[in-house]
Design goal:
Number of strands of chain A: 14
Strand content of chain B: under 5%
Largest interface: A-B, 41 and 31 residues
Strand order of the largest sheet of chain B: 2-1-3-4
Order of helices and strands of chain A: EEEHEEHEHHHEHEHEEHEHEEHEH
Strand order of the largest sheet of chain A: 6-7-8-3-9-10
Oligomer: heterodimer
Number of helices of chain B: 16
Helix content of chain B: 55-70%
Low-confidence stretches of chain B: 382-392
Mean pLDDT of chain B: 85
Largest sheet of chain B: 4 strands, mixed
Order of helices and strands of chain B: HHEHEHEHEHHHHHHHHHHH
Structural class of chain B: mainly alpha
Helix content of chain A: 25-40%
Radius of gyration of chain B: 34 Å
Distance between the termini of chain A: 38 Å
Mean pLDDT of chain A: 89
Amino acid sequence: MKPTVVKIDNLVKRYGELVALDHFSLEIKEGEIFGLLGPNGSGKTTTINCLLSLLAYDKGEIEVFGREMTPTCYDIKSEIGVIMQNVAVLDELSVRENIDYFCGLYITDKEKRKACVEEAIRFVGLEDFVNFRPAKLSGGLLRRLNIACGIAHKPKLIILDEPTVAVDPQSRNRILEGIQELNRNGATVIYTSHYMEEVEQICTRIAIMDKGRKIAEGTKEELKGMIRNTESVSIEILELPGEIKEKITHLPHVYETEYDGTKLTVRCSGGKHNLIRILAVLQEAELGFGRVYSELPTLNDVFLEITGTALRDSKE
Amino acid sequence: MQVFNAFLRVLRSKFGSAIIYIVLFFIVGIMMTRADSGTSVWEKTKMVMVIEDLDDTPESRKLVEFISEGNVVKDDFTNEDDITDAMYYTMLDYVVTIPKGYAEKLASGQTEGIIESRHMHESYAVANMGMLLDEYVSTVMAYRQLGKTPLEASEAACKALEAKVDVTIAQEEGKTEDAASMMLIYFRYMPYIFLCVIMNTLCPALVAMNKKDLRFRTDCSGLTPQSYTMQQFAASALYIVALWAVFTVVGAVINGVMFSGRLWLAVVNGLVFALFSAVFALFVSEFSPNPNVITAITQIASLGMCFLCGVFVDQALLGGGVLAAARFLPAYWYVRLIRMLNGDIVFTAGEAALCLGIQAGFVAVFVLLTILVHRARYVSAAPRKTAAGSAA
């Protein structure tokens, strides 16, 4: 059994009348890449701020590395690396000076720090830009610098709060690969995002948040297993009589059909050969159709089924 | 010392915007020194004049000779109208007419209307010429009383009045010596340069180091807030003291003075004002202004304070209302002490201490204001530990 790195118990945080965190609990084990998934305003960043003791909270307990986390736990803080959504670097310093500065907040030994800085530069692939000022870097390179500043001191726990917002796909992939590599090197990672694809791609365990509450937690397979939807079949069809739609709805394992005038979406729960049965009905009725595709459920489906709203459509 | 080093690097990157002020200040300082290097030459003002000798006697010719000495005498005017025009257009300063019977009047001792003169524009030189003619006649009459003939008396008066007198500028009691005085003038302008340089460097550096996201990142680290603040304070203090020392030493070098006596008070005065400038920059930085706002505040604060408080215009020339308002600004007390040290107003140790004390008071007030603003904007949002153990 791996030791617990982070334990949040019954956390409550209110901003006046607004409940930002509503009896939120969490346990993260060593070596995990733990995803906090939720729409904007669901309480992800508030959780991180409370976890880092940067924000006062109203109720609950937080333990990091088995010890209660308080604002003055500097020894615990020195084992944590934080990479926030906004790029937080000094515009007046070069890439190397920036990494050295932030690394120096944790490591005082010059030689050790120098080695860490060079390793971080190599890790994020900024070798060719070490003497550049941040203003000269592209958005993707800036994000990499931001990450290097957060991980140069080799923390045991790395917290990334939406590090890929407004990042091009190429840089995003590089960042995600980097996070996985950090995890392989022994770091426990907490990754918050509202991009479900990213969370699905890299996280070993996921908690889905909404309105300050944890609505589901588990591996991605466990989460998908929590919902009825196991397969969504989509068929492009220009004409669909009501009785045919009704017939499809009553097929085995089908629990929902949706037709918007051009596309028929059929959601199935369990069973095999659902697509063949649906197409057989359409052929029998001699209806022509276009593209046909079948999709497995996503975390968005999980969120949709649990909350009734799509993850991407949720507003702050 | 990571924050200390980074802060100095950030300060260095901001220094470019202050260099123009520093270079201009030193150039003006050097020019002022060169402009008054103690080799002033005093020359008598030469007047352009016409002398009409209607008497044409040896006595009148002696007078013409006396008046002509050191002045430019024109004899190319043919009529009165030309002379009047020339005077109107300031091509001619003075006209002396020696009326007929001049020698006879000298012999009989009559002085009434003995010499006639006219001019169109008043000046010191014109007034001086009038007095010189009166003095000449008085001297001739004095020699006549001694039994000399009119001609002998005229010759004796010429000799007596042409004697040159060496002029020395007496040092007013309490006035400082020349180089020290120049140094004090240099010191008088220091509030402007301190405000401009410190506001343009320290303020943006503090804003850069204390950006919300950066502070967030720092607060997540193992560094205590106390250590962070102390390192920033140490770097700022080092910078301010270095700046003050450079300006003081360069001032001493270009003015060629060694610090002694009351000049040391001016040096301390400069340090106190530099501290005020630093604290003011710290206060402004608490509001995280952008560079344009910093520049605007710098211009308003430096120019406004320096004009009101007598940095650019001597306090003696400022109106009572202006000075009354200026008393609420530290630069007024800075300049007042400089004026005291320069002998412009009476120096008393008590009032000198008051000037320094009031400036120190301004420093304390702005430190207090900065702490209040900081607490309101930053500390109130930070977590506090409750008795129960959780952050609340």
